[in-house]
Amino acid sequence: xxxxxxxxxxxxxxxxxxxxxxxxxxxxxxxxxxxxxxxxxxxxxxxxxxxxxxxxxxxxxxxxxxxxxxxxxxxxxxxxxxxxxxxxxxxxxxxxxxxxxxxxxxxxxxxxxxxxxxxxxxxxxxxxxxxxxxxxxxxxxxxxxxxxxxxxxxxxxxxxxxxxxxxxxxxxxxxxxxxxxxxxxxxxxxxxxxxxxxxxxxxxxxxxxxxxxxxxxxxxxxxxxxxxxxxxxxxxxxxxxxxxxxxxxxxxxxxxxxxxxxxxxxxxxxxxxxxxxxxxxxxxxxxxxxxxxxxxxxxxxxxxxxxxxxxxxxxxxxxxxxxxxxxxxxxxxxxxxxxxxxxxxx
Length: 346
Known about the structure:
The protein has a single domain, classed as Metal-dependent hydrolases (TIM Barrel, Alpha-Beta Barrel), CATH 3.20.20.140. Helix content is 41%, strand content 13%. α5 links the parallel β2 and β3. The two termini are 18 Å apart.
C-alpha cells in the first residue's frame, strides 16, 4: 500500500478549519464527501480499445487519462471520502458483439478498482438507450455479479430522450430493483447548431438534461415506475430556473401535465452540485427542491482538479444560501440515505 493510499480520506481540506464542537458533524462531512459524479475511463479499457483501433490515446482529451494516484490525490484534497463513478466508453460502436466486449472490459476494470479500494470507490453500471438487450445484460452483470450500486445512462441517444416508451423494458426491470439512475448528457441532438466557440458542456449539456427531465414527466415515467430514483447532473440543467415556466405552460405539453403536479414531479428528482452551486444559482435550486434531494458532485476529471479543490468544493461549503445541516446533508448524508451501502464503507 502506498503512502497516498494509507492517508486516503485523512488529509485536511485546504482552507477549511474546524470550528469547534458545535460544528463537528459539518467538519466531518467536509472531509467525508460522497461524490456521485465522477468519470472513470479505465486504463484497461483504453488498452483494449487501442488494440481494436477504436481510439488512439494521444488524440483523446486529457480527462480520459484517468489514473489511481491522481484520483486519490484529488479526492483527498477536496475532502471526498467515496467517489461513485460512471464507466466511460468512447467511440461510436455499432457491432453488438464488439459493444458487449467493450462493456465487459470496462465493467471488469471498474469491479477490480472497487474491490481494491472498497472504501474509496463505487460504480454505476452503464445502460444503453438504443440497445435494450445490451442494457439488460449490463444491469444484470453489473448489479448482480459485480456489485454496482446503481446504473448510469445518457440523457438522450440518437435524438431519443430518456423516458421514451421504447425504453419500457429497461425501465420496468430497473423499477423492480428500485434502482438509482444517474443521468448525464453526451450526444446533443441537432449537430451543427451549436454556438461557435462555445463547448457543448457549457450550455448544450444543460439543455439536454432539462429535456430529459421533462421527457420523464410527459411520458409518465415517474408515475409508472415510482421506485426509480433519477439523479440529474449539473443541478438539473435549466430545470430549476424554468420550473415556474413549466408550471404556467404545462397544458401546452404533449400530453398535457396537470399544473398542480409539476412541482411534485420536480421534487422527485435528485440533483447533483456539479457546476450550479453559487450565490446566483443555489436559491433557484432550493426554491425548486428540498435540500434532502441535493447531492455532492465533482464532475472530475472533465472538471480539472484545481477547480474542484479551489472553486467548486469551497463554493458549496461557503454558500450563504445553505446552513450547516444542509451542507452536511449535501456533502454526505443524502447520498448515504439514497445509496445506503455507501455508509457501511466508512
